[in-house]
Design goal:
This is TetR/AcrR family transcriptional regulator. By secondary structure, the protein is mostly helical. The chain contains nine helices and no strands.
């Protein structure tokens, strides 16, 4: 048996799913996870309440499906042939996402949900695992080119790029500007070259 919100059929069902997930994202960005309500999401999406309750059942299942969709829709990695330029592209993508008024608020709401709900936390971990796996080949290629030491952990390098940007979003109170992204990429690249992420 599949969990609610995990089936991905096409046609009308796909359109309903897309509308509901967009409405859920809007509601989360506006009001946060504690105020997420399936009936409100159904109204925003223009679908029946019973459709939403039957398909997702709980707000946590809805958030989990929203995160799965966000991971699927995220842009693919950029490959430039240079570790620093690849990490810069990753940092700027993260920065643009988090600096966007809707997306930044949405990520804050989802992260807040993950601190108090185990299923939301699992969904958030899956989201980030997918994104790290998408960008890890940039680091693997840098190792193969001799830019980085053998045994460098690709996931750690990619996480090191986005960590300072998430800190700014959640706790820093400082702008998420292009300079912050450049510093994050440069610091991660320098640390990786120095062997900080070698296993």
């Amino acid at each position: 048996m599949t969990e609610p919100g995990t089936v991905r059929p096409g046609g009308r069902t796909a359109r309903v799913r897309a509308a509901v997930l967009e409405a859920a994202g809007d509601a989360l960005a506006e009001r946060g996870f504690p105020h997420l309500d399936l009936a409100d999401v159904a109204r925003r999406a223009g679908v029946g309440k019973t459709t939403v309750y039957r398909r997702w059942g709980t707000t946590t299942a809805l958030v989990a499906d929203l995160l799965a969709d966000m991971a699927e829709q995220s842009l693919p990695r950029t490959e430039t042939g240079s570790l620093l330029d690849d990490l810069r592209a990753n940092a700027q993508l993260v920065r643009r996402t988090l600096a966007d008024p809707r997306q930044g608020a949405l990520f804050k709401a989802v992260i807040a949900a993950a601190t108090c709900d185990e299923r939301a936390a699992e969904a958030l971990h899956r989201f980030y695992a997918i994104r790290v796996d998408e960008w890890a080949p940039c680091v693997e290629q840098a190792v193969a080119r001799g830019e980085l030491p053998e045994g460098t952990d690709p996931g750690e390098v990619i996480r090191a790029v986005s960590a300072p940007l998430y800190y700014r979003l959640l706790a820093g109170g400082q702008p998420l500007d292009e300079a912050a992204a450049e510093r994050a990429a440069g610091a991660a690249a320098a640390a990786a070259r120095a062997g900080a992420y070698a296993r």
